[in-house]
Design brief:
The chain has 279 residues and is an alpha+beta fold. It is built from 11 helices and 13 strands.
Length: 279
């Protein structure tokens, strides 16, 4: 029987005051590196008890369990002993680690389990953001939009700098590697944002499907009570997205942005969907 995954919970319990469960294998606590005291501030340290990865949102950085113990001043003997619990790095294990992954572990969303305050200031209700898994990456100051396939499997994360306008979205790749995760072979053109929620909704009631360009447009629809909406994550519809849309409903309503790119995209998409009833 293969060895079980390492569990660093006892070590983190020893060193991290106020450690409490978060999402999945993630825990939150008060960072001992910069001397946080329970009750005097909010906990700023996020740790993963399976991988030993950690990150301090107050500025201490992040890394693996070896770096954590070293920063705390532990001896080399202690650091080596605890770090030895890591997963074996045999060639077979290394090959598996670098191979593309089919999905991203749900536990990663615990790292981004913060409310994106800018979206709240823009008028979005926190419940709408929560229901759609929209979070905030404090390390990189990005709003995070998890992307799921039609079954609900987490296949990608897209980040947005709140203050940027052009080239503003970033598909997480190297960011996943920094957390010790494999990178899925993800392309936005192979997915529709919120498709898993629409699939579930249409199981109970036949409705048209609204198509918008971006995340925020879809969120505005949801906030208005129209939840049978998906986002292309752009103004162009790929053949894969066309197949996904046509599998949802025979009635498709295009609501792309009212700019040159949106108007051009609407015409091209309508031509793609000429066999469907398009409004």
């Amino acid at each position: 029987m293969p060895p079980s995954e390492p569990d660093f919970l006892p070590e983190f319990q020893k060193y991290v005051p106020g450690l409490r469960p978060g999402s999945g294998d993630n825990f939150m606590g008060f960072c001992p590196i910069h001397g946080e005291v329970v009750g005097q501030s909010k906990p700023s340290l996020s740790v993963n008890v399976k991988t030993g990865l950690w990150f301090c949102f107050a500025g201490c950085g992040g890394g693996n369990i070896r770096k954590f113990l070293t920063l705390l001043g532990e001896s080399k003997a202690v650091v080596d002993k605890i770090s030895a619990k890591k997963v074996s790095t045999s060639p077979a294990k290394r090959a598996k680690k670098t191979a593309p992954a089919d999905e991203i572990p749900e536990r990663l969303l615990g790292v981004f389990d913060w409310c994106p305050e800018q979206l709240v200031r823009e008028g979005f209700r926190e419940k709408v953001l929560f229901d759609n898994d929209v979070g905030f990456d404090k390390k990189l100051s990005r709003i995070t939009f998890p992307v799921r396939d039609r079954t609900g499997k987490l296949v990608g994360i897209v980040g947005k700098q709140p203050s940027s306008e052009f080239g503003k979205y970033k598909v997480y790749t190297t960011e996943l590697l920094e957390y010790g995760l494999r990178v899925p072979s993800f392309s936005k053109g192979d997915h529709l944002w919120r498709i898993n929620k629409v699939v579930e909704e249409l199981q109970h009631e036949r409705k048209p499907v609204f198509i918008v360009e971006g995340f925020k447009a879809a969120l505005w629809f949801c906030q208005a009570g129209i939840t049978n909406v998906v986002a292309l994550m752009g103004s162009y519809m790929t053949d894969t997205q066309k197949q996904l849309v046509e599998s949802l409903s025979p009635r498709i309503i295009l609501c792309l942005d009212n700019d040159d790119a949106g108007q051009s995209g609407t015409l091209k998409i309508a031509q793609k969907l000429q066999a469907s009833r398009v409004h």
